Every structure is written in structure tokens, then in C-alpha cells.
Amino acid sequence: MTASTRNGYVPGRLTVHNDPAKLGGVTRALRGTGRKIVLIPTMGALHDGHRELIRHARRIPGAVVPVVSIFVNPLQFGAGEDLERYPRPLKADVDACREEGVELVLVPRAEDMYPPGSDTRVVAGPLGDELEGASRKGHFDGVLTVVSKLFHIVGPDVAMFGEKDYQQLTLVRRMVRDLYFPLDVVGVPTVREDDGLALSSRNAFLDAGQRRRAAVLHRALAAGASMSVRGPDAVLAAARAELAGEPEVDVDYLAVRGVDLGPPPDSGAARLLIAARFGATRLIDNTPITL
Ligand code: PAF
């Protein structure tokens, strides 16, 4: 029996694990065979944005084992957020993973990720309290805590994250650097609907009118980006003018930041970020700009 079959792993076939320890045993054995383990952490409700992450993972040169984790992480939801109503279409998610050539799926139970008394947390630091963190206290501590657990369980060589959650991507990169996780973090560009709306599992909550109005986020980012040579104030003014055309949009923040989400530079690469509510649904988006 080879290392790749000993733990029930069959190359090219998808296996779903609930037990983190078992999955960790499989990835450990596979690493010994020289294959690259690539983790795509998700909360499920997989859409084309997630499929794009998997496709990027499979395009990494060399022999790659794509691993998808599906876990709606209670620790990153605040009181009154959408933890209960967050979609959990597990069968469709597993089918999507199979279609995309994923070989290992981890669907851990909450009691395995957070056994009684497991009170240790990863703290995001000051950036965790800004932008998304300003209205979602503790959200990024919850994200970084679960992501670090997943990194330890799976032991990936590479982890893929979407650029739509740009602050999350930035904070994960920082955690990997600060805590010496031995892996590369790859950010994958946002996948959009035809009208520019960024794909998100939360888009499913929008009614028809909200869905139509939500395209203003992308239009505002594009309007802002078109003014980037004139500096941050012009970027923000152009984006605000576009948002003013959709009076029912409740904007939470609109900000120009550096690529590391610090203050924007005088010139060069930067990021324009937005968050807004459409009824009870809060959406985020961002775009690269050059000042
Ligand atoms: O982006 C997400 O889906 C989640 O925040 C993540 C990274 C899977 C952690 O729960």
C-alpha cells in the first residue's frame, strides 16, 4: 500500500472528512510524497468565485492536492449577524468540489474546531478594528483564529483567498508573516456578475430590487478608479457621485487605502474599498487603483 492510499486517499477521487485529525494524517502522508497541498478555506455556499480559487489552485505548477474546507465559523459572526441564516448547501458544495477536481474536503464539526475550554484566540491587531472591523467587532479575530487552526490541521504549502475580502486577505498575509506559518498566501481576483456585482454567498439574500441596486457598488468603484490620477479626494468624490444615484443604498464606508490598508501613498498602487447595506444584507467590494 502506498502513502497515498493508506489513509483512504485515492488520487483523483474526492474524499470528505469530518475529523480534522484524520484529514491532517492524510495531508501529512501526502506531503511526504512531494505533492503540494493547497488549501482553499471556505464557509461553503460555493459559487463561481470559489470555483475560481480551486482552478487557480489546480494551475499551480507541480503535483497539487487541492483541499477545500467548509465550515461556517461561529467565532467570526457577531450578535445579530447572519450566522443562523447563512446558507449551508452541503451536498451541492461537495458536488461542486468534485466537479472542480478537489481531492480532499474537510467539513469539521463545531465541537472539533472549538472543544469546550478552547479559549485561545489569534488577535488581528489595530487593522482588525478598522473598515470591516469597525462595525464587526472581533470579526477578524474569529477569522484569524479559525484560519490558523485550519493551517495547523491541513499543513498546506499554499492557501488561496479571494481578493473580494481584501482586508481578510491582508490580515491573513500579516498573520502568516508575523507567526511564521511556513506557507504562501495567494490572492485571487474577484469574480463578477455581468453587471459587475462581486460574487458572494450573501448575494442570495438580496431581493430583485436590492440585487439590481447592488450593482452600484461596482459602478462606484469604477467611477472612483477612473479619477485615480487626480488623488484620493477625487476618487472618493467620483465614487460618491455614482452612489448618490441610488438613494436606497446605505453606505457603511468608502475608503482609499494603501495596498497594505495603511494610509494611501502620494502616488502608486492603492486600494478603493466599499461596504454598504441593501436591506438586511451587507455587501463589500474593492478595486486596485493607481494614484
Ligand atoms: O472568507 C471566508 O469564507 C471565511 O472568512 C474563511 C476564510 C473561510 C474563514 O472562516
TrEMBL record:
Keywords: ATP-binding, Cytoplasm, Ligase, Nucleotide-binding, Pantothenate biosynthesis
Active site: 50
Cell location: Cytoplasm
Pathway the protein acts in: Cofactor biosynthesis; (R)-pantothenate biosynthesis; (R)-pantothenate from (R)-pantoate and beta-alanine: step 1/1
Residue positions binding beta-alanine: 76
An example molecular function term from Gene Ontology annotations: pantoate-beta-alanine ligase activity
E.C. code: 6.3.2.1
Annotated family: Belongs to the pantothenate synthetase family.
Descriptive protein name: Pantothenate synthetase
